[in-house]
Amino acid sequence: MATGALAGVVASLSLKALRANPPGGTQRWERTNHAGRPVTLLEGPAYAVGAAAAAGFAGAGPGPVLAATASAGLGALDDLVGDSSSKGLKGHLGALARGQVTTGAVKVLGLGAAGLATATLVDRGLRRSGGPARPTAVDTLVGGAVVAGSANLLNLLDLRPGRALKATLLGAAALAATGREPRAAAAAAGGAAMGLLAPDLRGEAMLGDTGANSAGALLGTVLVQATGRRGRLVALAVLTGLTLASEKVSFTRVIESTPVLREIDALGRR
DSSP readout, 113-132? Predict the structure, then answer.
C-alpha cells in the first residue's frame, strides 16, 4: 500500500510539474483525442517517473525499473518524432522488410531488446536467491518476449480515456494478489495508474506510447518475476494471440459490443 501510494503521489506531482514547464513547449506534447479535444501526452512521462521511482524505492529490483524507464523512452521516440505512414505491428515490420526504417520499427526492436535485458536481470536475481526456480536461457528469452509483448498490447488499449489505466489497475491487482515477491513492482504499476486516472478520465491527459509502453512493460516484468517457464509460455501465447487479433479486429468495437466490458470501460468517464 505504501509503494502504491508513493507511486500515485509522485506520478500526480510529476504531471503537474511537467504541465507547468513542458519540455520543448506545450504544443510539442499536445494532441487531439478521439473526441476532437486537445489532450496532453505529458501523462506518459509522469507515469514512468512515478512507477520507476516507487519500484526502486520499494526494492523491486533493477528489472522493473529498467522496464518502466527504457520502454518509456522508446515510446517517447514514437510520440514525439513518429510518423503515421505505417500503423500496427504488421505495418512497421512490413516497412522494415522493404528497407524503410520507421520510428515504430525502431520501437518494436527496442522493446524486444529492453525486454530481454529486463528478463536477464530478473532471472539473474532468481538464480542468486538460491530458490527452487533456476531459469534457463530459454526461460529468459520467453520472459523478454513477454515484457515486450505486454508493452505493445497495453499501448493498443490507449484509445479512450481511462481504458489503459484501468487495464493497468486490474492487471496490477491480479498480480499483487499472488502474494509473491513481485508485489512491490505490481503496486508501483497500479499506484502510478491510480494517481493519474482522474485527469485521464476527464480527457485532459493520456498515456500515449510513452506511458502505455512503460505500464505494459512493468506489468510484463511482474509476470516474469512471478512465473516459471510454463506461466511465461502461456502469457506469451495469450499476448501473441491478442496482438495478432488486433490486426484484424477493433478492440474498441469488441468492448462496446460487450455489456460488462462496456460498463467498465465507461466507468468514471465524462
Answer: HHHHHHHHHHHHHHHHHTSS
- pLDDT per residue as tens digits for the range 52-67: 999 999 988 999 999 9
In 3D, which of 4, 121, 143 has the Cα closest to residue 65? 121
- 236 contacts: CB under 8 Å, gap ≥ 6: 142, 145, 146, 149
Sign of torsion, CA 28 100 71 235?
positive
Average pLDDT of the residues in 235-256: 93
Output the average pLDDT for the chain.
90
**Exposure string (b/e) for 57-77, b if CB count within 10 Å is 16 or more?**
bbebbebbbbbbbbbbbbbbb
In angstroms, the CA 40 to CA 257 distance is 29
**CA triple 243-245-249, angle to 5 deg:** 125
**Residue 270, pLDDT above cutoff 80:** no
**What tens digit of pLDDT does each residue of 26-40 get?**
899 999 888 888 999
If you ran DSSP here, which 8-state letter would residue 82 be given? -
- Report DSSP state, residue 162: T
Decide: residue 98, CB within 10 A, 0-12 exposed, 13-18 middle, 19+ buried: exposed
Q: Is the sign of the CA dihedral 183, 186, 192, 195 positive or negative?
A: negative
**Tell me: the pLDDT tens digits for 169-215?**
999 999 987 766 688 999 999 999 999 999 999 999 999 999 999 99
Cα 2 off chain centre by = 21
pLDDT tens by residue, 124-143: 988 887 655 688 999 999 99
Q: Which residues pair with 40 in a beta bridge?
A: 30, 205
192: nearest Cα among 168, 223, 222: 168
